[in-house]
Every structure is written in C-alpha cells, then in structure tokens.
C-alpha cells in the first residue's frame, strides 16, 4: 500500500478569514438641502413681503434726481443767489428810508417783510443738503437700489431649486454634487454682493441722510418753498414794472446796485430754484417709500439699511456652510465582518 496519504485540500484564504460584504448604499446627507430650500424661499419672500421691489426703485429714482443738486458747486450757487436777494432787500430798505416809503408797492413790501424768514428757511435746507453730501455720495456709489431686491430674490430662486432637486437626488443615493455646487455659487454671490456693491459703508450713511432730509422732503415744506417762489416772482415783477422806474424818477442819483444785480441774476436764479423745488416736489413720495423700507426692520431694533449688507452676507455664509456639510463623504462603503478587523 502506498504509505503517503493525500493531504486534504486547504481552504482558500477568503474562506478562512471572512466574507467581505459590501455595505448597503448610503444616501447622501439630505437635511442641508432642506435648509437650503427654506433659505431660498425666505430670500424670495423677504423683498416681496417688505415691498422692497417698488420701494427700492423709488429710492433709486430719488438718488438719481438729486444728483445735480447735492454738489458743492450747486449749493454754493444757491447760497450766492440768496445773498443777491438779501442785497436787493437791503437796497430796497435803504431806498424806502429816504424816498419811497413802504405802502405803495405791496409786493415789494411783502418781499422786504418775508425775505428774512425765506432766507433762513432756504439756508437751513441748503445746510441740510450740504451736511449730507458725503452720505449721499456713499449711497449713490452703491449698486443701484432698484437692483437690490433682485440680488436677493434670484439667488433665492436658485437655492430653492438646488434644495428641492438636491434633496430628491440625495434620497435616491446620489451625492447631488451638481446641486451643491449650484447652491455654493448662489451663496458666494450673496457674499460678494455687499462687498462689491458697497453696501457695508452705505448702511451707516443711510440713516443720517434720511434724518437730514426728513424735514425737507415733506409736502408741507415743498408747499412752503413754492410759496416763497411766488413771493419772489411777484416782487421782481413789481420791481421791474414800476418800482425801479419810480425811484429813478424821484431820485436819479439813488444807489440801486443791489436791485440791478438781482435783475441781472434773475433768470438763471429762478431757473435753478424752480428746478430744485420741482425735484423736491417730485420726490416726496419716493422719499416716503425709502423711509418705509428703512422702517421695515424697526421691530427688530435697527433700520433696514444698517442691516442690509448683513442681509446678504449672513445667508451667503450659511449657504456655503451647508454645502460644505453636505459634501462630507460617508464612511467607507466596505464593511469587513471578520473578527479582529476594524469595522
């Protein structure tokens, strides 16, 4: 007999150690997509619910309309016009004290009587505009106000879509990378907007400008200034038609330099004042819309313009954070069930 026995066949290594099992496919994290969708809806709802679309457009119109008047050159011109009117009044008072006493020229008399108040009120208005020239320039240098609600709503639409479709894709086991990337781009846009658009410096500038213009841009103030204009036009008409000739007849050597300077300056002066009063009148409603927009956040303790930049940046940072969280890879797909091996 053959003494050599045949050795039993050894088991394969894979049969000896363990059986490698593939873990069930893990779905990607879904909750970040749900939060992205909610953020997107809020970004769309915020400008709609606060009336930001029409109010911001009116604010943009007001900023554009006041551009020619909120300059040092323009304000100096108006102040010079007021000085010419003051010199003319001084001239008339001097004449009245010597040759043409008050009473015969009622419109000239009204000008003499009312002009100190007119000058004081108009000077205060010009001072208010001059004081806030820098704040105005800061606001005028930002992204156009009328565009701002769109810069919130459009990323909101993108985030809503990315959230909904990403959530569904993650439920099917996909990592939904494309939707995360789309959301990240929208979040990046939200962060870049206040930085590139100058919204951070605009916030502190808006409230002082609103406070400074509040006494000026009212229907009552515009009506009062229009009344001043009527007084000035009537006085100039009487000076031209009767008063100056009467003084020349009574006193050929009378000093009328102030009145003459007014006559020479009258046409460009009235044109400038008419343009300013017209702009004020046209923008009372626009200013009210800006105030209403700023007051939307008053219940939270701050003006909307002060928090406007953060209204873009904070959602943008949240979106980027959510996309990073959602991009974390799941733990290894392979689970070794053998004893002594790490799970």
Overview of the molecule:
The chain has 343 residues and is mainly alpha-helical. It has a two-stranded antiparallel sheet. The model is unreliable at 1-5 and 332-343 (pLDDT under 50). The chain is 72% helix and 2% strand. The chain crosses the membrane at residues 31-53, 147-167, 179-200, 307-325. Keywords: Membrane, Transmembrane, Transmembrane helix.
Biggest sheet, in brief? 2 strands, antiparallel
Helical region count? 13
Shape: rod-shaped
What strand order characterises the main sheet?
1-2
Please give the number of β-strands. Answer: 2
- Residues in helices, as a percent range: over 70%
Order of helices and strands: HEHHHHHHHHHHHHE
Could you list the spans in which at least 5 consecutive residues all have pLDDT below 50? Answer: 1-5, 332-343
Distance between the termini: 51 Å
Q: How much strand?
A: under 5%
* Integer average pLDDT: 88
Class inferred from helices and paired strands: mainly alpha
Q: Roughly how many Å is the radius of gyration?
A: 37 Å
Number of domains: 1
Give the SSE map.
Layout lengths: L12 H4 L3 E3 L8 H19 L2 H15 L5 H25 L9 H26 L1 H8 L7 H24 L5 H20 L2 H15 L5 H32 L6 H26 L1 H11 L9 H23 L7 E3 L7
Antiparallel strand pairs: 1-2
Helix pairs in contact: 2-7, 2-13, 3-12, 4-5, 4-11, 5-10, 6-9, 7-8, 8-13, 9-13, 10-11
Keywords: Membrane, Transmembrane, Transmembrane helix
């Amino acid at each position: 007999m053959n003494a050599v026995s045949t050795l039993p066949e050894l088991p394969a290594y894979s049969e000896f150690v363990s059986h490698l099992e593939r873990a069930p496919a893990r779905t990607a994290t879904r909750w970040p997509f749900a939060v992205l969708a909610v953020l997107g809806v809020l970004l769309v709802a915020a400008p709609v619910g606060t009336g930001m679309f029409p109010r911001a457009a009116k604010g943009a119109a007001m900023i554009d309309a006041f551009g020619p008047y909120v300059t040092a050159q323009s304000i100096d011109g108006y102040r010079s016009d007021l000085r010419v009117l003051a010199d003319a009044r001084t001239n008339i008072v001097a004449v009245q004290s010597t040759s043409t006493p008050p009473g015969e020229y009622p419109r000239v008399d009204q000008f003499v009587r009312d002009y100190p108040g007119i000058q004081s009120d108009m000077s205060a208005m010009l001072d208010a505009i001059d004081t806030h020239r820098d704040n105005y320039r800061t606001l005028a240098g930002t992204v156009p106000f009328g565009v701002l609600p769109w810069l919130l709503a459009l990323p909101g639409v993108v985030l809503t879509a990315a959230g909904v479709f990403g959530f569904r894709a993650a439920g099917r086991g996909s990592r939904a990378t494309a939707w995360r990337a789309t959301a990240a781009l929208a979040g990046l846009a939200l962060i870049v907007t206040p930085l590139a658009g100058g919204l951070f410096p605009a916030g502190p500038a808006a409230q002082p400008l609103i406070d400074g213009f509040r006494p000026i841009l009212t229907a009552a103030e515009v009506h009062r200034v229009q009344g001043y204009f009527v007084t000035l036009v009537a006085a100039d008409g009487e000076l031209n038609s009767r008063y100056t000739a009467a003084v020349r007849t009574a006193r050929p050597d009378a000093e009328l330099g102030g009145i003459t300077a007014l006559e020479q300056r009258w046409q460009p002066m009235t044109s400038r004042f008419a343009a300013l009063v017209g702009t004020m009148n046209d923008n009372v409603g626009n200013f009210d819309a800006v105030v209403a927009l700023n007051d939307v956040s008053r219940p939270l303790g701050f003006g909307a313009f002060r928090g406007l930049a953060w209204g873009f940046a904070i959602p943008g940072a949240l979106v980027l954070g959510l996309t990073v969280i959602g991009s974390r890879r799941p733990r290894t797909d392979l689970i070794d069930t053998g004893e002594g091996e790490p799970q």
